[in-house]
Amino acid sequence: MFKITVLPGDGIGPEVIAGALRVLQAVQKRAGVEFATREAAIGGSAYDRFGTPLPGETQQACLHCDAVLLGAVGGPKWDALPVHLRPEAGALLPLRKQLAVFANIRPTKLHSALAEASTLKREVVAGLDLVVVRELTGGLYFGDKRREELPDGGQKVVETLEYSTGEIERVARMAFGMAQKRRGKLTSVDKANVLESSRLWREVVSDLAGEYPGVELEHMLVDNCAMQMVRHPRQFDVLLTENMFGDILSDQASQLTGSIGMLPSASLGGQVGLYEPIHGSAPDIAGQDMANPIATILSAAMMLRYSFNMEEAAALVEQAVEAVLEEGWRTVDIMQPGMRRAGTVQMAGLVAEKVERGRS
Ligand code: IPM
Ligand code: MG
Q1: Low pLDDT (below 70) residues in the chain
Q2: What is the value of pTM for the model shown?
Q3: Active site residues
């Protein structure tokens, strides 16, 4: 039996989570395994109920389980709160830190059925299959920050960017390992022409290369990488980045595939993995059965693969998603002329039925 802590969160979070749970039920039946799910509150909805976006009970539930499945947090309703009470800085970042999930894995794959959904030309994105490995618990997002009043009436702000050799090494090893299992190419992204942290980053990553002879390592400056990603994205296999660069580049990468509603993520490195779609809470479409549940369903597939070592079941879910897309089913974010429109509930149901039946 695997214990899963489920954090629906805000906006479309509860809807996409319900979709993923429907698919996990199908996996239970097929694979003869039992998932014990326990829901806990996070984000703005937790703040509304308990006065904090990350209640202690939620933290405990996340620390004492086999994996955490998260929907999304945040929304305009909570944007004006002091920073420590906001869903993002007050819940999501501390949760990642507590779980010590230092590596965020964001696979970006173009589903062949969706080749026309990208804003880039078909020949640029066809066959695209890359993964961003983003450092997730260090760097600017976690450094000391402060404001000071200046004598001239203005303010001064200080943000600190810290990385240690050990922090760089552990996430780099994760990326090298991933490249070994894929096409053997690792692009380490930095800004070594300007930042000292990037120079250390480059040194540490280079020092490890000898231990992974099958992997071809290249270093790329982040500005060039942003350009290369829209110029010729198929050159990339595994991209390794520090926290902020990976935040930015993974959003950019998501658009190569047409919809951010398709992309899952896994945050690994601690005792318990955290799985969440890379999209946000989309408050504008919440509660309307419009959200695309596929990113969360694919995040659940990553959970099967990385936390439960259920490779076959993970592949089954991924194939089921592929098959439903091939049949022409689309949620509104990926709708194209001549395709069949499905709501959140129906889309999840279609995938679940395929999982129950096995290969179609
Ligand atoms: C992401 C998000 C978060 C991040 C925000 C919501 C704090 O953008 O998961 O990429 O920056 O990590
Ligand atoms: Mg982001």
Answers
A1: 359-360
A2: 0.95
A3: 141, 191, 223, 247, 251
